[in-house]
Amino acid sequence: MNNTLFSLIDSETEYRIINADAYETIKTFDDSTFDLIITSPPYNIGKSYETKTSIEKYLSIQEKIIKELIRVLSDKGSICWQVGNYVEKGEIFPLDIFYYQIFKKFNLKLRNRIIWHFGHGLHASKRFSGRYETILWFTKSDEYIFNLDDVRVPSKYPGKRHFKGPNKGKLSGNPKGKNPSDIWEIVIKDWEKSLWDIPNVKSNHPEKTSHPAQFPIELVERCVLALTNKGSWVLDPFAGVGSSVIAAIKNNRNAVGIEKEKEYCIIAQDRVNKFLNGELKIRPINKPIYQPSKREKSAQFPDEWKQLSLHEK
Q: What is the pLDDT of residue 167?
């Protein structure tokens, strides 16, 4: 691996942040290097770091990159491709559907289509406001890393037992918890129910930087824990401000992040330095979403809460 802007090697993990073009850099990597490739590619919606093109040209460029990514993915590895919707003149193009066809062209197998729901985002006026994005989880083979126990959620009825049959009296569920669903929500609490609650990174999020479409670390961390082992290599080809790199090294995985914008590479390196020094603000996985009190709500919406109080009586 070369063309590295920043790098660090310690006794347990190594990470590299590469300021370069993703496609040209990936071509220099050895085959079957990474157990997990996780990213949120540019959506072609005209953000400051994108050059907006036709959706056909955009997908053609992405297909070329994906082909190289599959080459460097290990046989037991996974690709997690997180995308939203491309919007043109009010019309929605669901990118996960377009991307699915590309990955299937290269014989990858879709294991889950994970819906990541969040409570905040841009408000639409001529359609319903978008409040979800999609993570497509593909594997290269049928023999892939999947550490379910590392991402189980507590059972709703942990002490429930079989009441008849050969297993009478035995616990009916796994004592380590249950398999989380394929809907990762952002409404109540993290890892306490079957829905995974992960707020998107907005102005009041502790991880917020200048990047306009930032990955929350905990979103990546759950994929890292489930789909890699300690010592595995993780790649983010569109690394932004380094959330995937941080999620990987936080859990003793090696990481490579590629980012063409030098400004974001510098921010990523600063965030990694702060993490290694114990100074980076990270939203904990088990931290509840802030819920306004009744007093705060009644102050903000006095008429609505006055009516609610009457009904409660």
A: 76
In a domain, 119, yes or no: yes
Under 8 Å between Cβ of 83 and 41: yes
Tokens of 166: 């050969």
What pLDDT does residue 166 have?
A: 79
As a whole number of angstroms, the distance between CA 112 and CA 110 comes to 6
The answer to whether residue 82 scores a pLDDT higher than 70 is yes
- Best CA proximity match to 183, nearest among 111, 130, 112: 112
Q: Decide if pLDDT at 283 tops 90.
A: no
CA distance 155 to 123: 35
Looking at the domain assignment, is residue 175 inside a domain?
yes
The predicted pLDDT at position 217 comes to 87
State in Å, rounded, how far the first CA of the chain is from the last one. Answer: 68
Q: Is 49 helix (H, G, I), strand (E, B) or coil?
A: coil
Average pLDDT of the chain, as a whole number: 78
Is residue 26 classed as helix, strand or coil in its secondary structure?
A: helix
Beta sheet of 14-19, edge-to-edge order: 6-9, 14-19, 254-259, 233-236, 34-39, 73-83, 132-139, 109-117, 183-184
Residue recorded with tokens 């919707």? 85
- By the 10 Å C-beta count (0-12 exposed, 13-18 middle, 19+ buried), 307 is classed as exposed
- Rounded to whole angstroms, how far apart are CA atoms 68 and 28? 10
Q: Dihedral through CA 28, CA 276, CA 282, CA 48, nearest 10? A: -40
Which residues lie closer than 8 Å to 11 by C-beta, 6 or more apart?
Answer: none
Tell me, yes or no, whether 14 lies in a domain. Answer: yes
CATH of the domain at 209: 3.40.50.150
Q: Residue 221's closest CA among 203, 196, 248?
A: 248
Average pLDDT over residues 6-18: 79
| Total of domains in the chain | 1
Domain that holds residue 186: 6-312
Q: What is the pTM of this model?
A: 0.75
